[in-house]
Amino acid sequence: MNIKKHIPNTITLLNLFAGLCALIHAFNGSYREAFSLVCLGIFFDFWDGFFARIWKVQSPIGLQLDSLADMVTSGVVPGLVMYKMLGDIQENQAQYNLTEETYYMGVVPYLGFLITLASCYRLGKFNVDTRQTDSFIGLPTPANALLIMSIPMIQFQYSDVDAIFDTLSNPYVLVGITALSAYLLNAEIPLFSLKVKSFSWEKYKMQVVFLVLSLILLVMFEFIAIPIIILLYVILSVVNNTILKKA
After folding, report:
1. Do residues 224 and 165 make contact, with C-beta atoms less than 8 angstroms apart?
2. What domain of life (predicted)?
3. Model pTM score
């Protein structure tokens, strides 16, 4: 019995379990715990593929399990968090309370699930798109999940900064972020992959530089660094693609 071939799938299932636990905390409005569990799930998501590659035990079922786990951890959870945030705004801010005249605005929180739908479509495309073996087309679902999950964390971190807190407590801003998220997930933008397949500075120097910059930003700015890092990821990818085309 080859134990090694079962280890990556076991790690994938740990990703799924972390996502399920995150769902429970998101339902209860415990966003900090949900954020931590999503980060844990993304951690497992990195290592399942890493071990599958170095041990050469990739399999079709592993690919499907990976996408199914990501669908929960990086698709359903951020969609639910956005739904809850929009619902909290309608409930707790008088100017957005539902009335008999504005009953139709009750659908607004459900727009948060556009993130889940776009994530599902993106994962489905990834499984059949042969262009995405060494890079990504569109924002990966884990990166998008971190972007969405960082919003309530930034609200907590900057609760005493009215400009930031009020902006992220505005339903129009959150719906705009939702729409941007859904677009970036499926945009035809080539982005470099952070999944290392070999130890080569020449091949992965872009990834190393990005990870070092990300770590510095996280230490300096904490949660608000996450959207900055996602923006940096997209910009570096576009610059890298431009350089490669000219070479």
Report:
1. no
2. Bacteria
3. 0.92
